[in-house]
Amino acid sequence: MKKKFKLIDLDCANCAAKMEEAIKKIDGVNDASVSFMTQKMMIDAEDDKFEQVLAEAVKCISKVEPDCQVVL
């Protein structure tokens, strides 16, 4: 399953790269991208693990940039 999400208050390209790297390491993730320019995140993960993957991705984003919000 592949889904896109809007990110609010993503402040720098470096943070986006750190987020993307962390999300790609989550178990069940096939691919992920975080774009600073478009303020969007794409996650491609296994269907049966998607909710768990999304919850972990939100945690990763909060660790890198606490003010950044994911619009579900």
Descriptive notes:
- With 72 residues, this protein is an alpha+beta fold.
- The chain has a single domain, classed as Alpha-Beta Plaits (2-Layer Sandwich), CATH 3.30.70.
- The chain is 38% helix and 32% strand.
- The protein has 2 helices and 4 strands; from the N terminus they run E-H-E-E-H-E.
- Helix 1 runs antiparallel to helix 2.
- The relative contact order is 0.30.
- The model has no long low-confidence stretch (mean pLDDT 97).
CATH-derived architecture:
2-Layer Sandwich
Largest beta-sheet details:
4 strands, antiparallel
- Enumerate the spans where pLDDT stays under 50 for 5 or more consecutive residues: none
Form type: globular
List key phrases describing it:
72 residues, alpha+beta, Alpha-Beta Plaits, four-stranded antiparallel sheet, 2 helices, 38% helix
Mind sketching the topology for me?
Blueprint (H helix, E strand, L loop, with lengths): L1 E7 L4 H12 L4 E7 L4 E6 L4 H15 L4 E3 L1
Antiparallel strand pairs: 1-3, 1-4, 2-3
Helix pairs in contact: 1-2
Could you provide a short overview of the structure?
The chain has helices at residues 13-24, 50-64, and strands at 2-8, 29-35, 40-45, 69-71. With 72 residues, the protein is an alpha+beta fold. Strands 2-3-1-4 form a four-stranded antiparallel β-sheet.
